[in-house]
Amino acid sequence: MTRRRVVLAGLILVACLGELSLGPRVRAAAADLPARLTDQEFWKIASDFSESNGFFRSDNLLSNEIWFQYVIPELTHTAKSGRVYMGVGPEQNFTYIAAVEPKMAFIVDIRRGNLDLHLMYKALFELSADRAEFVSRLFAKLRPDGLGPKSTAAEIFTAYSNSDTSEALYKETLKAIQDRLVTTHGFALSPDDLQGIEYVYHAFYTFGPKLQYSSTGSVGGFNQPTYADLMKATDAGGQARAYLATEENFTFLKDLETRNLLVPLVGNFAGPKAIRAVGEYLKEKDATVSAFYLSNVEQYLRQDGIWRDFCGNVATLPLDEASTFIRAVRGGRYGQGYGGLNSDLGPMAAEVSGCVSSPLPGR
Fold it and tell me: How is 42-61 classified by DSSP, letter by letter?
């Protein structure tokens, strides 16, 4: 055997031994989180991981948690970036995602209407070049002059408060949203989904930046923040952290949406499928949850006597000591009790360590 062949054989042997010794780690690296999902993969996950449509007492098109940014300074020191974000509800997730900077995100909500809302947002992120165009499309308002990449959220929303709402822009944008989702992406949206997206977008068109949690009339309330209020809000130190506060935040979200890596799901937190399916997927990808935004859903789970089922579901997720719950609760450490709720953080792994749950049905 020539020297060249001896060296080659040795290299092959070393490589084989290395693969044997590292086996699971090598396979895990090969199955890392994707750099992007194809349209088919995105829709399959959104469909296969979801549960049946459920009920909540409001449309929940907008957060009513004015102090929700207060947790972000501690959150960014606790939760690690480059992992997986999970959440519930509407736009506040975008602000937390911009702060945590995950590789992938899943929004799990009991109502299919929330999935429709996030599909609308997905299309608008993809269609808009910058924040000013995004706000123009979101509320069907003509874009004012003078807005640029350095404009603050306060400047943007002040400018749009004096801008005319345009029915023509509403119709044009609604068609663009539908075309983006159905024609460009090829998502198999049902007639109900298309109607749901139109319903959501019409609410934004009707109420504009003054949209509030209860604008659509399903639940009353007092002193609720508007969309503009939430975007102009800051953390306790006065730093603006909303997803529309900076062009960098917006660009991060736009990139994540364009690569199909923010996936909305329909699922009850205490249900048999959605959270567990995410857990299995993440374990296959050797990925870990960085943060899970809960809003005040635990309040309803406890009222219904099913919080332990939720706890068992979360226990199936890949967690470590840095995985962090974000919640809106009475008596939380952050905020000044707007509407009786303020924000808090909690260690996910420690809080669910005592919960055990059976595997997914059929697994």
Answer: HHHHHHHS-------SS---
* Prediction pTM value: 0.88
Q: How much helix, strand and coil, in percent to the nearest 5, is found in the chain?
A: 50, 10, 40
Full domain range(s) for residue 290? 61-351
Question: In angstroms, what CA-CA distances link 104 with 9, 26, 35, 44, 274?
Answer: 41, 21, 9, 16, 16
**339 or 348, greater pLDDT:** 348
* Residue 202 located in a structural domain: yes
Examine the pLDDT at 12 and tell me if it is beyond 70: no
- Within-domain flag for 37: no
Task: Give the Cα separation of 236 and 287 in Å (integer).
Answer: 32
Q: What is the mean pLDDT of residues 84-95?
A: 97
> For the chain, what is the domain count?
1
Residue 105 pLDDT exceeds 50: yes
In a domain, 78, yes or no: yes
Tell me the pLDDT band of 359, cut-offs 50, 70 and 90: low
**Helix and strand numbers, DSSP H then E, in the chain:** 15, 6
Q: Can you read off the two tokens belonging to residue 200? A: 């959501």
